[in-house]
Amino acid sequence: VNDFGCSWRDGTAFVALIQCINPRLINLQAMNQMTNKARLEAAFRIAEKGLGIPHLLDSEDVDVDKPDEKSIMTYVAAFLNKFPEPGTTSVPPCTSPTLEAASAGDMFSEIEMEYSELTTWLSHTSNWLDTLHDPATHGNINYERFKALKSEADEKTVIYEKLKSLVESQSSMISITVDS
């Protein structure tokens, strides 16, 4: 990071800030594979849900040639009071209802909603892709549709990774099987 402009454009610096504050919130491998827009949107969403930092920026305003430096400075300043005190090694508490529930019902509802959203999208997208085997009937997929599908897949990867980590943690609050 060399400035409060272009250095923040791809979202990696926001992801790094979140990861430094609470590593449990970020899957760096999944984030590195995303497009700039998807990475920015995921970082803003995770900062809001996981750290309680208001969503002040839009990905469309940051992923430009010259992002507004004052807007980025203002947003980055919100991260300052979320850092653990120097000398402490504990991970700060997570405010995300999917990782630390205020109530079990809230946690279950959000997990169930995300699981349902992911499986519905996968089913719909898989069925649509299966119809593309005959270009004479359906035409070829165009680049814009491919980009849109890739962006959707990047967003769904964030949900998948979160659900996967919950399943692997064998939390008693969820009943999603590994096969699901």
UniProtKB/TrEMBL annotation:
<keyword id="KW-1133">Transmembrane helix</keyword>
<dbReference type="GO" id="GO:0005737">
    <property type="term" value="C:cytoplasm"/>
</dbReference>
<dbReference type="InterPro" id="IPR036872">
    <property type="entry name" value="CH_dom_sf"/>
</dbReference>
<dbReference type="InterPro" id="IPR052403">
    <property type="entry name" value="LINC-complex_assoc"/>
</dbReference>
<protein>
    <recommendedName>
        <fullName>Calponin-homology (CH) domain-containing protein</fullName>
    </recommendedName>
</protein>
<dbReference type="GO" id="GO:0051015">
    <property type="term" value="F:actin filament binding"/>
</dbReference>
<dbReference type="Pfam" id="PF00307">
    <property type="entry name" value="CH"/>
</dbReference>
<keyword id="KW-0472">Membrane</keyword>
<dbReference type="GO" id="GO:0007097">
    <property type="term" value="P:nuclear migration"/>
</dbReference>
<dbReference type="GO" id="GO:0005640">
    <property type="term" value="C:nuclear outer membrane"/>
</dbReference>
<keyword id="KW-0677">Repeat</keyword>
<dbReference type="InterPro" id="IPR001715">
    <property type="entry name" value="CH_dom"/>
</dbReference>
<keyword id="KW-0812">Transmembrane</keyword>
<dbReference type="GO" id="GO:0034993">
    <property type="term" value="C:meiotic nuclear membrane microtubule tethering complex"/>
</dbReference>
<feature type="domain" description="Calponin-homology (CH)">
    <location>
        <begin position="1"/>
        <end position="84"/>
    </location>
</feature>
